Amino acid sequence: MHSSIRQRKSHRTTCRVFSLLAIVCLIDAGCTGRSSTTPQSPAGGSIEKIVYADGIGRRVELPRHPLRIISLAPNITETIYLLGAQDRLIGDTTLCNWPEAAKHKPKIGDLLNPNDEVILAAKPDLVIASTAGNDQGAVMKLINLGLSVYVAAPRNVERIFQTIEDIGRITDCADQGTQLVAQMKERLEKVKQKLAGLPPIRVFFITWFDPLLAPGKTTFENDVLHLAGVVSITADIPEFYPRYSLEQLLVKNPDAILTVPHSGDPIPNLKKTPGWKDLRAVKENRVYFLGEYLQHPSPLFVDGIEELARKLHPERFQ
Questions:
Q1: Rounded to two decimals, what is the model's pTM?
Q2: Among positive and negative, which fits the CA dihedral 38, 41, 45, 48?
Q3: pLDDT tens digit string along 11-31?
């Protein structure tokens, strides 16, 4: 697990209506077709448990139908809502702000510093952490306190699909997880078809402006970008989020510049910024400010892909 650049990201949200949210409207409390009562073992009254392998290979014993779930990361909260298990979500982080209802769940701390006392007092039967932002030490502390912690690892697109299905299984919403992944893949295929025949666009993705950081080889962002028909000029750098210099950028001279605005790290007017104003992407007005969902390793990343593809190739989406 690595906290990396997510330590400095604020997960702002907009009030857009996503097509994925339609799933939630069709699912009643606790997932369609699932009993809201706790399964009992044949031997007595104890809760039935199942052993799962989590995203980092740990074997963890969890209740078959968890009734009290805590999310430690925004991507987990977003997935839980889209699976329809939000009625059993008893707590999430201060950065969990999608959908609007997630803002009003009891807060257990922030992404890097969950409050173990608050979590213990809530008596969860399932805590779901994520390598996409959670601090390894904080998660291990919760595990050592005896809590049932499942760690998801959505490190790339395929692992996001797997994570959604895994969270579906551990929340007793397996059918919903399968359906959600199928709908995501269908939407991505439509984007692919609309972009068919177009040459890839070379882009520079600004993860952070000062100091200048970009996504490296093994990051989720670079795995996602190619789905919108682009090639990241930093995709071959082995570091997670390497520092990049303006001199390097001037040599590479990408076709477009992409960024997701962050509070506390404003992007200046590049047309008036020394060095930057000489880049082809700046001269040709190909600097694109995107919504934060492109960087969410949750079902919402598909919204980010669709937004980026439309901005780069509006003629294909009329």
A1: 0.84
A2: negative
A3: 333 333 333 333 333 333 456
